[in-house]
Amino acid sequence: MIGRRGVVFPPLPRRPGDGKMAAIRSLKGLVGVISGGASGLGRATVERLIGQGASAVILDLPSSEGASVAKTLGDRCAFAPADVTSETDVRNAVSMAKEQFGRLDIAVNCAGIAVAVKTYNFKKDLPHSLEDFQRVINVNIAGTFNVIRLAVGEMGKNEPDSDGHRGVIINTASVAAFDGQVGQAAYSASKGGIVGMTLPIARDLAPMGIRVVTIAPGLFATPLLAGLPEKVQTFLARQVPFPSRLGNPAEYAHLVQAIVENPMLNGQVGPGLPFDHD
Ligand SMILES: NC(=O)c1ccc[n+]([C@@H]2O[C@H](COP(=O)([O-])OP(=O)(O)OC[C@H]3O[C@@H](n4cnc5c(N)ncnc54)[C@H](O)[C@@H]3O)[C@@H](O)[C@H]2O)c1
To answer: Keyword rRNA processing: yes or no (predicted)?
Structure first.
């Protein structure tokens, strides 16, 4: 195994009972709550969970497509109309997982919003709206934290597996947390907040066997981006060094599955940028 700074660790000595380690988990029979599950990356995640034999509660706004998506996916999927910033709404979604599917093992935070506004418009002598800034921070950071703090209460009731594992939280930051562009002050700050809270929350929850991992996606072809003109989409795709295209939401969902299955991923943010920027 290669550690940080390229140090090569010798293999660990075998201990009695090593063969019984929990290792790879299967999604079959697990139950997840997915915020923003009615669209884009969240929806692809819901579809992946259902396809792998798990059950899923879509936590999304009442105005979203959540009800029809859940209906299409069948009995192992339910819709909880909810705003991630509301304590009552999120409590209801967590209760729905328990009441309809018996438990809660996974929470994936995909609900998120963005604005694209410069800090100051000097032509119009107009500062960035403080209300817009606060709204993005509230939905993306407080909303993510609200889902985490309420979901883990339910996960803590699970019988631990042989590793002591009770559940997993997966958050969605963005490449903008590290490489924000013009007009992304609010969005980048909100995603940086999600990156920043990943490790302390993982440390808080480690004694209960609940892992926390944050995905920082690059550009993905979701309704968020599909609304842009074809020319802009092609331009954005060309900025990606390799592969030079927008990601498919199914590829994000595949990573969610890998994180759930692999108990050695915890307290981390990835994959981040394709390579280091100087
Ligand atoms: N698409 C990309 O290229 C990309 C890149 C990096 C990060 N992300 C992040 O991934 C996440 C998903 O993005 P997407 O592209 O799938 O967007 P999307 O707009 O397709 O889906 C977002 C979903 O979140 C829901 N939502 C918004 N506010 C909510 C609230 N207050 N309560 C509950 N649900 C709410 C929306 O109704 C929608 O269904 C977001 O956090 C986004 O910032 C996306």
So the answer is: no
